Amino acid sequence: MKNEPVTLHDPVHGAIQADELEWLLIQSRPVQRLKGIKQLGLVDAVYPGANHTRFEHSLGTMYVAGLMASRLGLSQEEVRKVRLAGLLHDLGHSALSHAVEGVLSRNPDIQPLIAGRRASRHEEFTREIINSHPFGEEAIRACDQVFGNADEIFREVADIASGGRPPLGQIISGDLDADRIDFLLRDSHHSGVNLGLVDTNQILQALTISNGRIVLAGIGDFRAEMSQTAAESMLIARAHHYNALIYHPSVQSIRTMLLAALENALARMEAEEARSRVVLFFREYTDPDLLRFIWEKGDDQSREILERIKYGREFPLAARFDHRSLPPDIGMALSTISRHGRMRKLFEDGLGKRYGALVDITAGSGVPRSMRTEANGFLYDESALAAGLVKSLTRQIALSFFSDSGAEVSLEEVRLQAAKLLSFIRAESYLPIDGLLLLFYSLHNMLSEAFGQRILVPRIRNITWLYRTVQRLKDLGQASLSSLYDYSFHSDYGFPYSEKLFEDIQILVAMGMIYQDQRHYERNGQWLQRYEYMLTAEGVGYAEEVATSYRKEAGLLRAHLKMEKHAIPYDVVSLHLKRYRGDSSR
What are the structural domains of the chain? Predict the structure, then answer.
């Protein structure tokens, strides 16, 4: 092995040095392909400078990952593995950013198989590519020389790139990771949009390792305050990134147009042929390749859409409803629909035909869920600002109609179409977020009490009780409840925890189904915060509709909660009925 590093000059981080193994991987075909994939897809149609590629981002992630690993005191071998994971973490990304993933989520029949399972996300393809390590014989020999066993090392690197093997995987895929640091800095630099303060040095100083996991440093001292500030600044930048670059109406229009054109082209192929071609989208194609595929395989409408995108004539926004204008029940229904691909396709296509427009539901994603502090708490329990930013990210939802002609959209029709579709889906499958709402509804019915013009409303005062209760419901041995509460739990924090369950709770809060409050409490001389939850009147109304689809499960749930009633941690709040129900006349 040669000891002379290769220097690459990056506009964001300056000089990035790569050792011989890294350089051989950088020169390999899978990594070089990333030069032909723009980091932000077609966002440069709106922000002309945003034409940077995933190749640049991969180099930047490698660099930041190395800084983080060194700052955390990891061994030189671990630093090298983390840098390799950062370099290779986007290898399985499809051309044109996330457009292909959008099509696959809406059309499960054309999802290709990886290790016998359907795949629809680039992370699954990335793992498969790294495990097969098609980087050339010279790179494999160099890896053998450095680490001893290339096959074993690339399996480990694939795990790290996917967020596994903490603390190493947290550096690449976590709430405060090298991937996010680089894309926030890089997207801001190239788009010209100032996303706020993302201070790499401050973030590095904020992190430490405790009990084998990366956490925010400091216990009730100034260092804890600075660490929290660094994490909060990242969340602010993440929220601004979403609003400015992803949520922009013109960006949404172009993304919706591209998805429609690609979906049309794939629909004209046999399912097996489409699946084979999709594999190439993730392994071989660049952006120009995919655009050429749509042109050749699509119909005249697809080609017209590509022409319009090419010459900057996206469909104008004809109508739009967001969290400010959507009633809570419609917002909740759209949030559920948006997170289930096939459901979303049926809904968008149905409304599109009704109004002669392209329809898009955009919902916030990437909600931070697991950042811990050295004091063994969650950042989002200890920081009111972080909790607010999580809610801000989660509540972002918009129903948009794009058309050359205006569209007079009836919200009542949107409500009816959403209700019909959800009723249909619930008849054939379970939606865990429905089960969570049903739990709050059952608690409300069991513990609330109305008298005269007032109502006593229960407030559940311990989120960990919710985690434990949902896990128990899943493990009761009742097949229907196990399916309704299909959440995965781990005990890394000393209690059952599910990131998806936390996210679903935040969605219910953001959509106005549940009221979330924070209360202070003292522990070991420190004043901390905890969540408390109360079902809103809007949540009661929506849950009543949900309960009609789960009559059997609701009965089993009530029976279980009656046996557990004495152990439920709750207080009651006395409210005037009209106030609780939101009667504006009062």
Answer: 6-193 (1.10.3210.10), 249-427 (1.20.1250), 430-580 (1.10.10)
- For the record, the structure tokens of 58 come out as 């991969």
Q: Provide, for the chain, the percentages of residues in helix, strand and coil under a 3-state DSSP scheme, each rounded to the nearest 5.
A: 60, 15, 30
Distance CA 50, CA 44 (A): 5
Q: How far apart are CA 189 and CA 560, in angstroms?
A: 54
**CB contact at 8 A, 461 and 532:** yes
Q: Where are the alpha helices (DSSP H) in 287-356?
A: 287-297, 300-310, 328-338, 341-355
Q: The pTM is what?
A: 0.91
Q: How far apart are CA 16 and CA 18, in angstroms?
A: 7
Q: How far apart, in whole angstroms, are the C-alpha atoms of residue 569 and residue 218?
A: 30
* Secondary structure class of 395 (helix, strand, coil): helix
Q: Is the pLDDT of residue 326 over 70?
A: yes
Terminal C-alpha separation, the chain: 79
Q: Is residue 40 classed as helix, strand or coil in its secondary structure?
A: coil
Q: Which residue has the tokens 């967020």?
A: 163
Are residues 369 and 453 in contact, defined by beta-carbon separation less than 8 angstroms?
A: no
| pLDDT tens-digit readout, 192-233 | 988 777 888 999 999 999 988 999 998 878 898 999 899 888
Cα–Cα distance measured from residue 250 to residue 402, given in angstroms and rounded to the nearest whole number: 10
